[in-house]
Design a protein that fits this description.
This protein has about 170 residues and is mostly helical. It has one domain (about 1-135): P-loop containing nucleotide triphosphate hydrolases (Rossmann fold). It contains ten helices and four strands, in the order αβαβαααβαααβαα. It has helices at about 1-10, 25-30, 45, 50-55, 60-65, 75-80, 80-85, 95, 110-120, 150-165; strands at about 15-20, 40, 65-70, 100-105. It has a two-stranded parallel ribbon with strand order 1-2. Strands 3-4 form a two-stranded parallel ribbon. Strand 1 (about 15-20), helix 2 (about 25-30) and strand 2 (about 40) form a beta-alpha-beta unit.
Length: about 170
Amino acid sequence: MLDQVQKLEKLSITSVVVGEIQKDKGVGQKISEGQFSIVFSSPEAALTSGMWRKSLTSGVFHDRVKAVVIDEAHCITEWGGEFRKEYDRLNELRSVFPEKTAFVALTATATQAMRTEIMKKLQMILSDTCTVSLLPDRPNVIYYMQKSSKKKEELNWLLNDLKTNSKS
């Protein structure tokens, strides 16, 4: 989230992170006053009563909020309440924000069954929900291979590891 804030700042978009990593306790008041266009929060900060939840649910920020975006939404089904109980409570945000607030769930790794479960847990009504599913073409990920005349020697560590740890 901190990386995303830095990138947004370079684009002159006001943004901030709330939660344990935020050391400036004055940020809560600034959020309520509507001084940030984008606020990044962990489920714990948004759902646990206290300063961060209060700042997200009051004042100008609350009145102007356009969307609640849940990134890495596959964590809702993969982790759920077993690992981080707040993932099972994300639907509570619907009662905190104005009814017109859009909910967006983003993931690059969810199966169809997982997407259905995510929508159910976030109370996304199928008739009101637009699903966009694209092939996972990741042009920012590249593979690099260097040819060498010493192929076997360079891969001996891998061959030895496979031989040693093979379950054959």
